[in-house]
Amino acid sequence: MSILTKEDIEIATRAADHFTRLYYSAYDSPTRIDDLPKFYRPNSAVSWNGNPSEGAQGVQELIANMPKTTHEVQSFDCHPIPGSQPPSLLITVSGMVTHGGGPSANPPAIKKTIEGHPRVFTQTFMLVPDTAAPPKPGEVAKYYINADAMRFVG
Predict the structure, then answer these.
(1) What is the pLDDT, as a whole number, of residue 4?
(2) Residue 27 falls within a domain, yes or no?
(3) Taking a C-beta distance cutoff of 8 angstroms, is the pair 81, 1 a contact?
(4) Is 40 inside any structural domain?
(5) Paired sense of beta strands 88-99 and 69-81, if any
(6) What is the pTM of this model?
(7) What is the widest separation between alpha-carbon atoms in the chain?
(8) What secondary structure letter does DSSP report for 142?
(9) Residue 1 lies in a domain
(10) CA–CA dist 148, 55 (Å, integer)
(11) What mean pLDDT value characterizes the chain?
């Protein structure tokens, strides 16, 4: 069993911060249908608010039918998982997401829709090192999303 060092935890935290910024920027971008699936592999497991999907293709299909989003990440936590070097990363993110143009974009007659209303969410990722994309000298390992579970909590 390998023991995590303080350096492992610091590197993992920096990687999680970098990943979180890139992921939600891609998610909220006008080109998300092309950008977001790049974070996944064909066998990645995805659960969006209890609805299972699989891989980059599943993510692409999911977001193709979703209004535009604006995410506000309020916190994240990262835990390196011992056993491999570099370690896999368990990342938990919480924040607010608004689908569509915000409350002012909602037609007044429609009351029960996620569109336009900020929702509290939590999202948990398992990132694993991407052996197909070895890091360049001085670069931290590259990761992909092996598992992703998003849930509305409010």
Answers:
(1) 78
(2) yes
(3) no
(4) yes
(5) antiparallel
(6) 0.85
(7) 59
(8) P
(9) no
(10) 10
(11) 86
